[in-house]
Write a structure and sequence with these properties.
single chain, alpha/beta, TIM Barrel, six-stranded parallel sheet, two-stranded parallel sheet, globular
């Protein structure tokens, strides 16, 4: 069996995320989640209704309250149990999506901490630096992380409030310049980019109630102009497959598959796809996925990712690997090793 590579996961805790993010996007705040009484309630629910996996929700709360080193240790431990050899934690810069409400640990310090953690797990973790183009000097910061701090890729999260297209009139000149600079650098140095591409996830506070606007920022078609200009850019549009059963319609997955015909370095990962894990939807999900993998044009573009620990409240890494492991062996190795290797190591510097 080939090594398993997870191209989409996160290392986060409460100190890495602005307090305002929780207040605006959840019916409870960090202060409540971190209280001993809250943890006790979760334990009681676990005993009363163990089938609901409240114990795993408790695990997630414990991780969020702990140090980032403890979070990394938990990730590597789950990787070991699941047989995952390599993972790429994606940094998250949420300050500009929360009206510049800063996290307890500033973003630049988060990157230093992640770099130190990676030095302790050099063969297991290869992080991506997040670029929010509204941050002053964000392109220079990202390049510094790539050249000096062992980061191996870039994360883009447009639905936090900007278009990925540098020439979009909705962007200010500063943001456009940062985007154009990082695209040029990544294309010239074969650095992969992973972009959030889903109706779910985090959104900028100023567009949170505007569903049509926030979806427009995240839509895969927003990348067409970028890919036409930077035709060697290695890009992963993340969270592909959530609407896989609708690929024959005008779905986001369908749009990505169409774009792959014109852009040979365009990939899509399967992270945060509960449809694959739930009984009521898994049969249709894998039927559609097999259809994508049967097409020679798209077979080499699909990447395995779990989005740990976003689904950890219900599924462990081992359980996710086990579900996808029901694919035929060659299909499984295609999405978990061959394709991720080509995405992460395009110059044939591949893990053994």
């Amino acid at each position: 069996m080939k090594p398993i590579i997870n191209v989409h996961c996160h290392l986060l805790n409460f100190r890495f995320v602005p307090d305002r993010f929780f207040r605006k996007r959840a019916p409870f705040g960090e202060d409540l989640l971190s209280k001993t009484t809250s943890r006790a309630i979760v334990r009681i629910l676990t005993l009363m209704r163990p089938g609901r996996r409240h114990d795993r929700a408790h695990d997630v709360l414990g991780l969020l309250r702990g140090g980032i080193g403890d979070v990394a240790t938990a990730l590597v431990r789950e990787m070991d149990a699941a047989g995952i050899s390599l993972a790429t934690p994606l940094a998250m810069d949420l300050e500009f999506g929360c009206h510049r409400n800063r996290p307890e640990i500033p973003y630049r310090d988060q990157l230093k901490m992640l770099s130190l953690i990676v030095s302790e797990h050099p063969e297991r973790l290869k992080p991506f630096v997040m670029l929010d183009p509204r941050r002053s000097g964000s392109a220079e910061l990202a390049i510094q992380c790539l050249e000096r701090m062992d980061f191996c890729g870039v994360k883009i999260y447009p639905s936090l409030g900007y278009s990925p297209d540098p020439y979009d009139v909705l962007n200010d000149k500063h943001s456009s310049a940062n985007l154009e600079a990082i695209y040029g650098y990544c294309e010239g140095h074969s650095i992969p980019i992973t972009a959030h591409c889903s109706r779910g996830g985090a959104y900028g506070e100023h567009i949170l109630p505007e569903h049509h606007i926030r979806d427009a920022y995240a839509h895969p078609r927003c990348w067409e102009t970028v890919l036409k200009k930077h035709n060697r850019l290695i890009l992963n549009l993340a969270h592909f497959g959530g609407d896989l059963g609708l690929v024959e319609d005008d779905s986001w997955s369908g749009a990505i598959l169409e774009m792959m015909k014109d852009h040979p370095t365009l990939y899509a990962d399967l992270s945060c796809n509960p449809q694959a894990l739930e009984r009521k939807s898994s049969v249709q999900y894998f039927k559609s996925l097999r259809r994508v993998l049967d097409d020679p044009l798209t077979r080499e573009r699909i990447l395995f990712g779990t989005d740990w620990f976003m689904l950890r409240h219900t599924w462990t890494e081992s359980e996710i690997v086990r579900v996808f492991g029901e694919l035929p062996k060659d299909d499984f190795e295609q999405i978990t090793f061959r394709n991720p290797s080509a995405f992460l190591f395009p110059n044939s510097c591949r893990p053994r």
